[in-house]
Inverse folding.
């Protein structure tokens, strides 16, 4: 098996993303000369003083009255051939909070793409610069497309220009804080959306190494099969036994904080394709199991964002990377594996593989780095969707203060979570007569039992939380800031948690 994995590691397909990149910039307040101009207005229908001729302003107000324009965030009315402009788009500015501003930005960048024209947003003095920056962030997130395999993809690069006071200040703030999030989210989405014949453990490693090339205060460690065998990572290695593509454990260290400060650890499940193994999944929807690396993608991409914005924290991403396939060498139900901690696990289902690879990964992160906070994130269970729908990720933690911190960070950036229990009875559900635990148990609380398995490998005094994001990691339909497909969920959450840490120092 080791020889098979060594041979397979030599063949990796590395493609460069063909995504066009939106041009998002800031210029001085005032009207552009032509093109598509966007003007915020409220329910009072009072247009901002932006230099429109009075006759044009009066016409726009009459048209808004006729269209019953509400002025609320999300409202949008388009007028054609007004003055020198191809289009004048009036958008609602009442209650324009962060989320609504981001959605507006996504809508405007898609307008630019569809019209193949520059969109100029004229920002009134009465609206905060921070809200304008949220519009720009939403535009960058909404611009993403995974189109590298389309032979007829458009090469047009959409453009959004925000006209406001102090454009240089706004541009600097955008470049420092928002552009890294856009870039990191696109990186995560690329990894999630790419098919399984393109992304597998070694390629994930190579893409990560390429993304971090030239970044300061970063080091990358890659453990191969021999390294993991020496350490005794039987749970992680067992999941990969059925694939010709060998597992990897990828560790990205970013040291932007004080020397010696314990890092934040983001540990992400990285199953590059999950067939279920011997406990094979049904064929309906199996193609989507390329997204089972969404946790690893979020973890690595979040650290990429920290590095690109020179965050003042220490952080690590730990990504156990495997492909879960059925074959004559695959792990079987009923097998027993020995983990890095020395604990044993009876395999009840080979399709409960995420908790197995995380068992070794969280233990490695805890023992090697003694993190100040450790969060694992995974597309772990289908039951989390039954419990929470598609809005909230599931959060599990032994520590109230840790849970509160994560919940607050999620609310801040719109990646929201709901805390679920780690009930003591879950330990009984995973009891095994022949090993320390089983990897799943009966028909109980599926998401909670998955969390309990992982918790079994984390010391009780370690500040730890588990996030089950199986229900939020894939968008089944598009929204202004998230095209259909991989969401990149967790990148902004982890960045917000790191900002909490920076604010404490």
């Amino acid at each position: 098996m080791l020889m098979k994995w060594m041979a397979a590691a030599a063949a990796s397909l590395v493609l460069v993303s063909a995504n066009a990149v939106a041009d998002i910039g800031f210029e001085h307040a005032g009207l552009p000369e032509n093109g598509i101009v966007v003007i915020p207005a409220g329910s009072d229908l009072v247009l901002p003083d932006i230099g429109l001729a009075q006759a044009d302003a009066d016409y726009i107000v009459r048209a808004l009255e006729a269209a019953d324009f509400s002025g609320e965030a999300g409202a949008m009315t388009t007028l054609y051939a007004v003055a020198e402009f191809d289009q004048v788009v009036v958008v609602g500015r009442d209650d324009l909070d962060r989320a609504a501003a981001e959605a507006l930005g996504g809508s405007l960048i898609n307008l630019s793409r569809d019209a193949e024209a520059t969109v100029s947003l004229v920002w009134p003095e009465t609206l905060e610069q921070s809200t304008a920056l949220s519009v720009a962030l939403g535009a960058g997130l909404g611009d993403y497309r995974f189109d590298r395999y389309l032979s007829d993809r458009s090469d047009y690069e959409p453009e959004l220009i925000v006209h406001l006071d102090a454009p240089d200040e706004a541009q600097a703030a955008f470049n420092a804080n928002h552009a890294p999030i856009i870039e990191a989210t696109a990186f995560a989405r690329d990894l999630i959306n790419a098919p399984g014949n393109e992304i597998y453990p070694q390629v994930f490693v190579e893409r990560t190494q390429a993304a971090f090339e030239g970044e300061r205060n970063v080091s990358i460690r890659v453990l191969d099969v021999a390294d993991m065998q020496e350490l005794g990572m039987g749970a992680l290695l067992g999941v990969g036994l059925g694939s010709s593509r060998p597992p990897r454990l990828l560790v990205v260290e970013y040291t932007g904080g004080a020397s010696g400060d314990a890092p934040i650890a983001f540990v992400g499940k990285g199953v590059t394709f999950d067939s279920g193994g011997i406990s094979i999944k049904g064929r309906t929807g199996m193609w989507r199991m390329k997204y089972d690396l969404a946790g690893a993608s979020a973890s690595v991409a979040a650290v990429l964002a920290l590095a690109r914005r020179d965050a003042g924290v220490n952080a690590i991403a730990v990504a156990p990377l495997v492909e879960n396939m059925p074959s004559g060498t695959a792990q079987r139900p009923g097998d027993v594996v020995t983990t890095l901690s020395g604990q044993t696990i009876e395999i009840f289902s080979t399709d409960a593989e995420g908790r197995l690879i995380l068992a070794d990964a969280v233990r490695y992160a805890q023992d090697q780095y003694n993190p100040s906070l450790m969060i694992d994130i995974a597309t772990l269970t289908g039951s989390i969707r039954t419990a929470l729908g598609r809005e909230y990720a599931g959060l599990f933690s032994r520590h109230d203060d840790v849970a509160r911190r994560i919940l607050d960070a999620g609310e801040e950036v719109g990646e929201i979570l709901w805390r679920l229990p780690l009930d003591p009875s879950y330990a009984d559900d995973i009891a095994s007569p022949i090993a320390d635990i089983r990897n799943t148990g009966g028909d109980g609380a599926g998401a909670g039992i998955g969390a309990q398995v992982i918790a079994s490998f984390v010391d009780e005094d370690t500040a730890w939380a588990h996030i089950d994001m199986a229900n939020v990691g894939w968008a089944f339909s598009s929204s202004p800031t998230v095209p259909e497909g991989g969401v990149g969920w967790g990148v902004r959450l982890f960045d917000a948690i790191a900002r909490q840490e920076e604010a404490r120092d």
In short: The CA atoms of residues 222 and 312 lie 25 Å apart.
